[in-house]
Write a structure and sequence with these properties.
single chain; 426 residues; alpha/beta; Rossmann fold; 7-stranded mixed beta sheet; 14 helices
Length: 426
């Protein structure tokens, strides 16, 4: 079933992720002088599937959940992208995230296209048994759509390695053979890769270090503000602190902490594990999360949700470097403001590419049946992230554009080249 996009009001236009992706696409396509036909091919998702998932809840009631899977491009290889569970999942969001995966894989120059999935549900009110039922039925509905050579899901918001284990098992039962390469982000015991949990945060570290070198800045003199203390923000904070940077502020949904001398990230992680919140951490000052985003710093790392930096607040950003750990944290309208303010933006399709890169490594290892040690994983991740950073910034310098436009130009050019080589099957 092909899902129709909902009408978008003027008020919501800036925050519509599909329209934001389209705006960046249009700018890059114009500068590359792509013909109209190629633009249509690259802009249009290859497949959009909507499924309706009946589940008997623990109290005996029947409920029907809606799920999506979008394959944006398979020109360079199987579609690749996560599955998120949230009450506010929309087809526009999934569509935009799938296109971002296409461009992210192309920037990293790994042989995947872009995909994304989502189920409209609230995991906070569902039991583990109910989540397993949703996951298995969702997988069964998509068993002819996903696969190691077709579309390889991964964890995303509110899904994890246990979710991936359920998907792998369900798919394998339908195929009557164990197929570990159908998903990535699995438990290590079921074919997961070492270094996968840290990969996105580690990738953010690698590109931030490259940006510091570009501006002749030393890690020890670098002040970092991190928004989001989940897997990406928490791991990036830990690794950046280990590299010598000062994490002066951590922002979460329920509060923000500030210490100009640097926050002990290990102690904060332990505090949140015990207390369930970052609030009341004794070694930092509590400040308003709305103000924390505008602290003067060297690096701002938004690692929460989309649309955190927009036309109404971008003018207040006082960071020298913006490293986008989240997908789509900056709106297209905010791009122009940040460019005018000379903020060096490391765009999401470059900055958070560490996760999909190590997912690629996991897929390769599963297909080989031979697994790498963590040192090899991290070394190969650094090589890809550093090369991607250099490719993007070299293109930006050559064309006189900001990094986001350069990243999209690089991605579009690589995907368009693959499409031209393959030709159009008719």
């Amino acid at each position: 079933m092909i899902a129709e996009a909902a009408p978008v009001s003027t008020h919501d236009k800036e925050f519509n992720p599909w329209l934001a992706a389209e705006a960046r696409f249009n700018e890059a396509a114009r500068r590359l002088e792509l013909d109209e036909g190629m633009q249509k091919v690259l802009r249009t998702p290859a497949m959009e599937v909507t499924v309706h998932i009946p589940v008997q809840l623990d109290d005996g009631r029947l409920e029907v959940f809606t799920g999506y899977r979008v394959q944006h491009s398979i020109a360079r290889g199987p579609a690749k992208g996560g599955i998120r569970y949230a009450p506010d999942v929309t087809i526009d969001e999934v569509r935009a995230l799938a296109s971002w995966m296409t461009w992210k894989c192309a920037v990293a120059n790994i042989p995947f296209g872009g995909g994304k999935g989502g189920v409209i549900c609230d995991p906070s009110v569902l039991s583990e048994t109910e989540l397993e039922k949703i996951t298995r039925r969702y997988t069964a509905e998509l068993v002819d759509v996903i696969g190691p050579e077709r579309d390889v899901p991964a964890p995303d918001m509110n899904t994890n390695e246990q979710t991936m284990a359920w998907i792998m098992d369900t798919y394998s039962m339908h195929k009557r053979t164990t197929v570990t390469a159908v998903v990535t982000g699995k438990p290590f015991q079921l074919g997961g890769s070492r270094g996968r949990v840290e990969a996105t945060g580690r990738g953010c570290l690698f590109v931030t270090l490259q940006a510091l070198r570009r501006f002749h800045m030393e890690p020890a003199d670098t002040r970092v503000v991190v928004q989001g203390f989940g897997n990406v923000g928490g791991m990036a904070s830990k690794l950046m602190r280990a590299a010598g940077m000062k994490i002066v502020c951590v922002i979460e949904w329920d509060g923000a902490l500030y210490n100009p001398h640097g926050i002990d990230i290990t102690a904060l992680a332990q505090h949140r594990k015990e207390a369930g919140t970052i609030r009341d951490f004794p070694d930092a000052e509590a400040i308003d999360p709305k103000d924390a985003l505008f602290l003067e710093c060297d690096v701002l790392l938004p690692a929460a949700k989309e649309n955190q930096i927009h036309s109404q607040n971008a003018g207040h950003i006082r960071a020298k470097i913006l490293c986008e750990g989240a997908n789509g944290p900056t709106t297209a309208e905010a791009d122009r403001i940040l460019e005018d303010r000379k903020v060096f933006v490391i765009p999401d399709i470059l900055a958070n590419g560490g996760g999909v890169t190590v997912s690629y490594f996991e897929w390769v290892q599963d297909r080989q049946g031979y697994f790498w040690n963590e040192g090899l994983v991290n070394g190969r991740l650094e090589e890809i992230m550093v090369n991607s950073f250099k490719d993007v910034t070299s293109l930006a310098d050559h064309h006189g554009v900001h990094n986001r436009t350069a990243a999209y130009m690089l991605a579009l050019d690589r995907v368009a080249f693959a499409v031209k080589l393959r030709g159009i099957y008719a």
